[in-house]
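Continuing the series of single-chain predictions for the mutant panel. This is the parent chain; the variants come on the following pages.
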Amino acid sequence: MSDIRVDGYKSISFWQEDNIGLVVLRPDDSSHLETSHISELVTAIGTAAMDDGVKAVAITGLNKRYGTGFNFGDRKETENLMEYCGALLSLVYSIEKPIFTIVNGNAIDIGYEIALLGDVMISSNAIEVGFSSSYTFMLGGSITSSRLKNLERGRAVSGVNVDIAYNPENLLDNAKKYITEHFFFDYPLVRRRRMISFRESLLEEREHFFKRRGTQIPG
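Parent structure:
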């Protein structure tokens, strides 16, 4: 995938392609993400939600880097991060368009949680996905992961830890074909039913997150 820079974005790229609002995560060389990735996801998905030319949203990574860790800042930035996480989940819950994730690189911990935000997670079968045993949910993973059988780190397998896994050579073409064939499937309704209690779960995840980091929950 080309390294396309988009005005107004530092940590992602975003454009429309064949009626798909394509959001590209730009992690660092270690495939780590930071707060700006989450805040810019909110902006990009919100923009796609209001664009009549966009029939579906797809989130992928740049050059086989998706997300395997997170660079935490100071306490204030961490508080902001959790606010952005809440905003992103609220947006995902409410958007009336299908959301797909095209996982073209290892998706571990926070990367896997982002991938799980998709109504359908379309993955390369040559990558690793899942949660580390010590990981603390940040993005509603306690709910979004419920449709899958195995959440431990391992090779991506269709119906086990991702929804669909393709060979990496044709991943993007196969993913785009699948997405265009499912523009009008009622994923938003299914998503809302699955996430009906996500607000309560998010509050519990937030409390657990700050406890695990040894800091007081902000008021």
